[in-house]
């Protein structure tokens, strides 16, 4: 078993990491904007990126299933291993559930998702404003939880690098940054 992730795994990780953080920031930014053509444009971009990342997470999952990640360091205690695996599972789950909650919310609020402005995606629910408001709260809460899990993920990687002085962080970095 290799001590490094594959180049494809690293590429998928960093594309999704950067895109998800940008998408999260855009979501928080646009939420409180006054209604305007710019707000509608940002919502469209947010939806397009969300759909693309939703699809990309399945590519990433398929890659991970076919290519086992490097083993965790021997020095990690069973509880640490459980938390590490649980954190990764939670990240994948949230990368699937959050875009679904956004799509459901858009459907319930009566705003169809039209990918790249040309490909209308089917509404998942009938228009229902009250349900749309509940789904908006769910979408926001899931994103706040996602942000917390990402912060924990980054903190754990930094702990491994600076405190434990192992290779957990560096084996996911592109080779020019190691």
Automatic annotation (TrEMBL):
The keyword Electron transport applies. It is found in: Cell membrane. One of its GO terms (cellular component) is plasma membrane. One of its GO terms (molecular function) is metal ion binding. GO terms for biological process: respiratory electron transport chain. Keywords: Cell membrane, Electron transport, Heme, Iron, Membrane, Metal-binding, Transmembrane, Transmembrane helix, Transport. It comes from the Bacteria. This is Cytochrome b.
């Amino acid at each position: 078993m290799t001590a490094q992730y594959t180049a494809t795994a690293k590429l998928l990780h960093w594309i999704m990491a950067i895109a998800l953080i940008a998408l999260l920031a855009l979501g928080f930014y646009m939420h409180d904007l006054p209604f305007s053509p710019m707000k509608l444009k940002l919502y469209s971009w947010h939806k397009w990126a969300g759909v693309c990342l939703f699809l990309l997470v399945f590519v990433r999952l398929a890659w991970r299933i076919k290519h086992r990640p490097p083993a965790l360091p021997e020095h990690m205690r069973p509880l640490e291993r459980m938390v590490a695996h649980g954190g990764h599972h939670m990240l994948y789950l949230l990368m699937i559930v959050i875009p679904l909650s956004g799509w459901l919310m858009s459907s319930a609020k009566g705003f169809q998702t039209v990918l790249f402005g040309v490909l209308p995606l089917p509404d998942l629910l009938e228009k229902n404003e009250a349900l749309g408001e509940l789904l908006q709260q769910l979408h926001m809460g899931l994103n706040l939880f996602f942000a917390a899990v990402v912060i924990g993920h980054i903190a754990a990687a930094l702990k491994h690098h600076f405190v434990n002085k192992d290779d957990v962080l560096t084996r996911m970095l592109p080779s020019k940054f190691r």
